[in-house]
Amino acid sequence: xxxxSTQMNETSCGTPWLAVRRDLGPRRSSFLTFLSFFGPVAVxxxxxxxxxxxHPDIKLQxxxxxxxxxxxxxxxxxxxxxxxxxxxxxxxxxxxAVRKRGEAxxxxxxxxxxxxxxxxxxxxxxxxxISGDQExxxxxIYDLWRALGTGEKVSDRPVxxxxxxxxARENWDAMKSVSSVYDxxxxxxxxxxxxxxxxxxxxxxFLPAPHEVxxxxxxxxxxxxxxxxxxxxxxLFHSVRIVFLGFxxxxxxxxxxxxxxxxxxxxxxxxxxxxxxxxYMPAPAFSTLLVALFAANDAPKVSLVVLGTLFQMVLVIxxxxxxxxxxxxxxxxxxxxxxxxxxxRVVIPGTMPNLYNDLRILLxxxxxxxxxxxxxxxxSGLTELxxxxxxxxxxxxxxxxxxxxxxxxxxxDQVLSWLHRYLFPYAEGNQxxxxxxxxxxxxxxxxxxxxxxxPEAGIRSTGPLPRxxxxxxxxxxxxx
Amino acid sequence: MTSSxxxxxxxxxxxxxxxxxxxxxxxxxxxxxxxxxxxxxxxASPEGRVTALEGLNFDVHRREFLCVIGQSGCGKSTLIRILxxxxxxxxxxxxxxxxxxxxxxxxxxxxxxxxxxxxxxxVKENVMFGPKMAGRTGxxxxxxxxxxxxxxGLSDFENAYPFQLSGGMKQRVAIARALxxxxxxxLMDEPFGALDAQTRAxxxxxxxxxxxxxxxxxxxxxxxxxxxVYLADRILVLKAKPGRIDEIIEVPVPRPRSLDQxxxxxxxxxxxxxxxxxxxxxxxxxxxxxxxxxxxxxxEIE
Lengths: 480, 302
What we know:
- The structure holds 2 protein chains of 2 kinds.
- Chain A is an all-alpha fold.
- In chain A, 61% of the residues lie in helices and 3% in strands.
- Chain A folds into 2 domains: 57-202, no CATH class; 222-447, Orthogonal Bundle (MetI-like fold), CATH 1.10.3720.
- Residues 1-12 and 452-480 of chain A have low confidence and may be disordered.
- Chain B is α/β, with parallel strands linked by helices.
- Chain B has 2 domains: 15-107 and 208-279, Rossmann fold (3-Layer(aba) Sandwich), CATH 3.40.50.300; 109-182, no CATH class.
- In chain B, 32% of the residues lie in helices and 23% in strands.
- Chain B has 8 helices and 10 strands.
- Chain B has helices spanning 18-29, 76-84, 123-133, 139-151, 167-179, 197-213, 225-231, 265-278, and strands spanning 32-45, 48-61, 65-69, 91-96, 99-100, 108-111, 185-189, 217-222, 234-239, 244-250.
- Chain B has a 6-stranded mixed sheet with strand order 6-7-8-3-9-10, sandwiched between helices. A 4-stranded antiparallel sheet of chain B has the order 2-1-4-5.
- Classes of the chains: A mainly alpha, B alpha/beta.
- Chains A and B meet through helix 13 and helix 14 of A and strand 6, helix 3 and helix 4 of B.
């Protein structure tokens, strides 16, 4: 019955992948969650590591000087794929001309020749042959050419082309004929040749590869910056502080106001129209005003976050508060709740799970104001790094910061969403989840808080419960 | 009888056995808990003023079970909302134990058709809500609440949240919650209307048991004839447009009630009488729908 068993499997596997508003099951859900992150990262990797997909530029491993143009390139610069062969051809032509001049008996000054020989420095640095402080040491450079020319040293990165190895030998022959070691008094004057520039395919600088970003991000946290500059960690805390402080102040104002607006028509009509108008005015438009008001420290930055979130928050909270089922309020009234109790015992606890979710979304809003806020007045925090490094086109230093902000926001939200489950186990969406240890601890703390109410607050003398005829008067026979 | 079906001749619904008559005599001797005098309610609407209720006069005696029945739109719900204080009458007065009442209060408990348990409170906390609103705290409130929960048979669920309960259980909690305030009268607005037939029958039994053992007066709104006859001492039949009292029927079915009584002549006579009042004969002709014939098979189904 193979036919039958496949049928069974298909049904037990559940719904098709595309089914209108149907659950896919936990395994498929986790797989898709994984995919939703893996997908974009995979695309980034593909574009970065598969040269045939994009790589419109050539990243120079070492460059050469062109006499006929003003632009100079150095190792690490990017040139377009179209320009690179032209660049190489120009250097070849230049070499031809130099060779002819040499044959004609022309000579170069030692300064000119030293400059040409420095071409080898990026290669030596990449191979780890010399350290950074030796890059202007002409004796070391002289020796490097000897090593290359004699084949004593072979460059792995980049692997030199046969053409360039020939040039190295040709140069060394010319050098050797004068002196086999560096001698400032006896420096070769025969015009040297330049090696033809080499490079690898690369994406533009605004799209660094994942590993570059990771390494740079790691270094950024390790780096001991100069004492006048805040460290990465300090910047991070500074930014987080601005967002959370702004959000917290906005909550302090908006929560009571929103709940009042959602509860009482009076407050709703008094505050909501203006709030509705004000929220359309872009918060950054007030930045100069805020600086004038609060001077140039953190205050204007925090107040921009407040300004950007507060008005939305009032409206969202009042709307959520209004969603509370009116029949709950009516039930509470028939149970003897007074006006104040209606608010404190029904409206607030009843809307709390939804308010909490609103605040989660609004915290996301607060994050989006961070960069603009930090640009106000004196640039600070993570944004300062983005701004300055971005201007120098060090995008491999910009990306880690942008990703960091994203991760921070995302994980804050995940933690808050996870807490929602424990704080409001009865709320829609949480109902089928079991409260874990944390949930039980929170409930326990909640019950403690409840018992802290003043114990003597108007205790009414309580007789035994009127059970089984006890309060039916003796003369009145209980109804059978 | 113009019907061609075989019929049985039913007694007059006003005939009462001596025991039943004696019960009603005693009932009317009990003090009046709720007195309604000249109660009326009208609304402003785009078509002018609409009168929902007009000139209602009735008394509910202590420990009486009064059902209010009427066709939809007769103002049943408006009446109970006025009695509970959630709406204000435009005329007349409402006396509870001889004192006029305005606005909602814990002396009139209410059970709604929609489950109005507070979803963020456990069963026990829901039941404790009323006493807490009255400023009571401490262990006595909790132990009382436990007793009420035990009474509705939900002791195993005292820490459950409402979402974990079935519809019938929710209404039992709602009844316990209303009773925990020890109200003078329990107002019930079609409380079992959303339940399936089996659960509803079970709930009716629970309610009669509770009523038998607790000193409480019940005013119960329903549109279900059987429910009214099964539960009530007296049935107040409302007439629509404007809502007025058609008749207050004394149910001649003896207590204790059981489902077997539904074939007693007295039961059937009462039901027939109410049915005639709610669906008058002149309205009773069958409305024919203009349906084109779309079938050839099964011509003989009727």
